[in-house]
Each structure stands twice: as C-alpha cells, then as structure tokens.
Amino acid sequence: MRAFYVEADWAPKPGYKLSKRELETKRAMRGNSIFKNIRGSVVDRPQPGIGPDEALLKIGAAGICGTDAHLLRKDDDGYTRYDGHSRYPIVTGHEFSGTVVEVGANVTSLKEGDLVAVESMHWCGECDACRRGFFNQCRNLDEPGLTFDGGFAEFAAIKARHCYTLNDLKSYYGDDVSALEQGAMIEPVGVAYNGLFVCGGLQRPGGHAAVFGAGPVGLAAVALLKAAGVGKLFCFETTPERQKLARDLGADHIVNPVAMTEKGEDPAEFLMDMTNGQGIRTFAECAGANPATYPIMEGALGIGGKTCQIGHRVGKTPVDMYKFMWNAARVSGSNGQSGCGIYPDVINLMAAGRIDMRKAITGRVSLENIQEGLDRSSRGAAGKILVSARYT
After folding, report:
1. Domain for residue 361, yes or no?
2. Domain tally, the chain
C-alpha cells in the first residue's frame, strides 16, 4: 500500500532525562528533545494485518492537522519542533475515517462495509486515569499517526473500541465520501467539544461567548457554541480567510485584536460595550496565544465566567487571579477528544444538521500530493485540508 512514512533519528539531547517508558518503548513524551533529522515521503509499505480486537480500514479521508506539518519542521540543531508524544518511524495522520474491510475474530461492534471515524487518543482502560474516567489523560496512551501507524495511507489497522460508525452521516449526506469527509472532521470538533462541555462544563444557553483563534478547532468551537444557544458570539482572528470561515460557521462578530490595538482601542472594553456590561460567560482559548488573550479575558469576564483552555502553548502564562476570584470565574484545561461519549454526540449533531463542518474544509489533496496539503496547512490561512478519497 502507499503511505506517508516519517523517519527520524533517536538522539536524546544532552541533559534530557529519559523516562522508563521512553527507554523501553522509544516513545518520546517531548519529541523535540529526542528526535532528530526528521523526514517524510510517500512510499510503498506492507498492508497491515489485524489482531482479534481490530478492524482493517480502507481510508476514506484524513485531515491534515497543524501537528502533522509542525513535526516535520526542524530547529537549528536538526531536532523536530514538535514537542509532544511521538515515536518514529511511523505512518502519520491522526484525524481520519474509513470503510471497514475486515474485522478480527473478537469484534462484534463492527461489520464489513461500515463507515467509521477513529479516536486519536487510544486509552488503555486500565490505568488510574482511565479508571477515573479521564481517558485523554491515559498513562499508557497510544496515538495513531504519532506512536503507531495512522491514516495517511491506503489502509490502517485500528482497535474496534476506538471506531465509531458513521452510517447515520451517510444517511444524512447521501453518499459515502461526504460522510467520510465529515467523519475525518470529528477529531478537531471533538477537541473543542471536550474543552467546552466535558471539561468546561458548559450547559446553560444564553450567555455571551468568545472564541480566540479560527483554526480548525476554533472553528469547531464556534459551530458548537452556536448550536448550544449562546447569546452574542465573538471570534478573535487576524487572518481574513479564517475570519470568513468563522462567520460562515456562526460567529456574530469578528474581532481583529491586532488592528484594534493599533488604533488605540481596547478589545476587552469592546466586549464589555457590546454586551452592555455583562461581559463574556464563556471564553474558548483555541489559539494558544495566552500572553495576548488572557489580559482580554481578565478585562471582559462575566460573573461566573468560564475560560476553556483548549489551544496548546508551551511555557508559563501570567494571570491576574484576582479578576477570576472577583467574578467567581474559573479556568479549565483539556486535552484530546476520546471517551466520555464525545464521538457519538458529535456524530449526532452532524447527522441532525446542527453543525456542518463542511464549511471549514478549504482544500483536498490526494495521498500522492500530501506535501502540497502540508505546505498549505502550515501557512496558517487555511481551514481544514483533507487527504480525500475524492482524489485517489
């Protein structure tokens, strides 16, 4: 089969202390401290076999995440710039869907011909985190496309318990490819869903909301907040292309904080004025631009406001906690999108027409031309670029 195969040299940086798991499994918790001379290309690879608890999928669509582009970038010393959980060599791609072509002997939840989406955080179900219901914090976490072969390929072998059927999406959209493309979008939508509803505890409709960043996860947050019935919905974004996508997905007001600051205007005061002094009840920080976003949030917190930290950022963020104390506000962190009924709920929203993430798809490429998609994704103006069966 054809696959986008990424290789790298195991070369821990001087002074980096390897954990027992890193030593035993060659999985890095911080890839940029271990993997050097990273490189990827489309090559022929053996078609995977399956175990008794697995299904073999023919890949229908796979989303190109910023992570996929980022891990191929190198610093001045030749190390990958991706600082997360990773292992190489590997077939990358962690946002994907496919058609079941074979199931293992123990699999009863899937059958040949089912369309499925795949969780990207593969929890073990046995560690302390999993037993407490924190599946995305699994201590034995595996991730397709990062620690084992993923979806930038013609086929992938996946444990059946991490697959969710898309047959309702096929009924709604009327064809396999549309359902599979929407299925590949469930991962970033699930990240936003986890941050807003599972970890953030968002429930009451009517409060005003603001999203920072209109990348794929930020766009998903816009769509989900609109479906949840918030009051006024603001989206902070500097890129014109993504501003339009945010408006298409339901944002009422687009805010360019850089342009506003250059004109001597205060974004926090703007939010307070636009909400008649009520402030924002829900902030979704999807940009990972904390030093710039938290001062805005501090100045526009509504009473009982919530900040859902969804975007990843390395490093410390200065926060004036008094503002959060005074407003009885809170900050919640989240990571991932697995477990907790997230995938079924997102599928139900899509199949009922409550959210339509097709509006966030701004390009499609074939597997053979994946580098073109990676380049377009890394420029920061795209929505979601898919490696799609439409172009194979």
Report:
1. yes
2. 2
Kind and range of the H or E element at 30?
Answer: none
Say if 40 falls within a structural domain.
yes
Q: Is the dihedral of CA 376, 381, 386, 391 positive or negative?
A: negative
Question: How many C-beta neighbours within 10 Å does residue 321 have?
Answer: 10
Do residues 132 and 241 share a domain?
no
pTM of the model: 0.93
CATH for 114: 3.90.180.10
Cβ 49 vs Cβ 103: under 8 Å: no
Asked whether the CA dihedral 285, 290, 292, 293 is positive or negative, the reply is positive
Considering the domain architecture, whether residues 132 and 234 belong to the same structural domain is answered as no
Residue 346 belongs to a domain: no
User: Residues 276-334: pLDDT tens digits?
Assistant: 999 999 999 999 999 999 999 999 999 999 999 999 887 788 899 999 999 999 999 99
**Residue 142, SS3?**
strand
Helices marked H in the chain — which ranges? 20-25, 66-70, 128-131, 167-173, 176-184, 186-193, 216-228, 240-248, 257-262, 267-274, 290-299, 321-326, 342-351, 370-378
- Closest by alpha carbon to 79, among 34, 124, 116? 34
The pLDDT tens digits of the residues spanning 118-141 come to 999 999 999 999 999 999 999 888
Which class for 316: exposed (0-12), middle (13-18), buried (19 or more C-beta within 10 A)? exposed
Domain that includes residue 46, residue range: 2-184+356-391
Rounded Cα distance, 158 and 50, in Å: 8
Asked whether the beta carbons of 104 and 52 are under 8 A apart, the reply is yes
Strands 2-10 and 90-91: antiparallel
User: How would DSSP label each residue in 200-222?
Assistant: S----SSS-EEEE--SHHHHHHH
Q: Let me know whether 74 and 104 are in one domain.
A: yes
Task: Say whether both 380 and 269 belong to one domain.
Answer: no
CB-based contact 219:246 (threshold 8 Å): yes
Complete DSSP assignment for 320-380: -HHHHHHTT-EEEE-----STTHHHHHHHHHHTTS--GGGGEEEEE-GGGHHHHHHHHHTS
